[in-house]
Amino acid sequence: MFSGSIVALVTPMKPSGEVDWVALDALIDWHLESGTHGIVPVGTTGESATLTVPEHKQVIQATVRRVDGKIPVIAGTGANATAEAVELTREAKEVGADAALLVTPYYNKPTQEGLYRHYSLIAESVDIPMVLYNVPPRTACDMQAETVARLAPIDNIVGIKEACGDAERVGEIKKLVSDDSFIVLSGEDAQTFRMMELGAVGTISVTANVLPRQMAEFCENFLSHDKNGAAAWDEKLQPIHDILFCETSPIPTKWALNAMGKIQNGIRLPLVWLSDGLHGGVRERLKEIGAL
Question: For 150-201, how does the pLDDT look when each residue is reduced to its tens digit (9 = 90+)?
Fold first, then answer.
């Protein structure tokens, strides 16, 4: 259903912090031209935590409209309050998203039973394909493979974006989930190659914001059984994966896109623009791979 290089799209902003709708359209056009296989608006990289609910809905709607059915749109609709996640997921369905990406609730640290009930209720409330999203470094909440296996039989829970920091978790999930249609997507660019060896079918990628064609080719190589070609791309991409997390994401990614002339220098507090001392390192890596 969903595979390959799916970009965790930044939300372009003006220096004032206002969403830059013209730049958003241009970014989406660039991804369509570059072979990106799917788009996730208003995920973590899209600064979902600091967009208002109306903005959240507007960004999803604008993305769906611009993509125009050419590739899947998986809308970020997670929240730490179950009722809010239901509301955002309903809005995503209403504006035409193909699926919803739902991060584990953050800050309140639910138990595994709480996670099961959270996702079960959302799935029962909104008839849209759902991709679970596990990213404990951001949320202080780690959804275990056993909980994923409990949720996988629910018809509209179709997969998981796994970013727990341990690529081997993919193997644990694949062992416990017998349904081959349940997909695993990497949420860690640097670990995507290993995750795909273990059964992941692609990535929801930060790096794809900056190198969409390269990330698409990397995934296509692997999925077409050209493992050597994928490994060669992985080696080239690892320095970019590394530098795009030299400060909290999406700070370095937004700086890189600004340096490439794709977006203005807008980001929302409490995130701030990339520290001056890191500009040279990011610029050097971008030049090495031909992005600048």
Answer: 999 999 999 999 999 999 999 999 999 989 899 999 999 999 999 999 999 9
Which CATH number applies to 4-226? 3.20.20.70
C-alpha count within 13 angstroms, C-beta hemisphere, residue 202: 26
Are 199 and 184 a contacting pair, CB within 8 Å?
Answer: yes
Residue 1 has pLDDT above 80, yes or no: no
Q: Could you give phi then psi for residue 7, rounded to 5 degrees?
A: -80, 130
The catalytically annotated residue of 93, 106, 133, 254 is: 133
List the chain domain ranges. 4-226
What average pLDDT does the chain have?
97
Q: Answer yes or no: 287 catalytic.
A: no
Q: Give the pLDDT score at 77.
A: 98
Active-site option among 57, 93, 161, 254: 161
Annotated active-site residue 133? The verdict is: yes
Q: What element of type H or E holds 88?
A: helix 82-94
The residues with which 38 forms a beta bridge, in sequence order, are 6
- What global pTM score does this model have? 0.97
Q: How far is CA 192 from CA 42, 77, 206, 276, in A?
A: 21, 23, 12, 30
Residue pair 97/62 in contact (Cβ under 8 Å)? The answer is: no
* Alpha-carbon dihedral sign for residues 136, 138, 140, 141: negative
Q: Looking at residue 35, what is its pLDDT?
A: 98
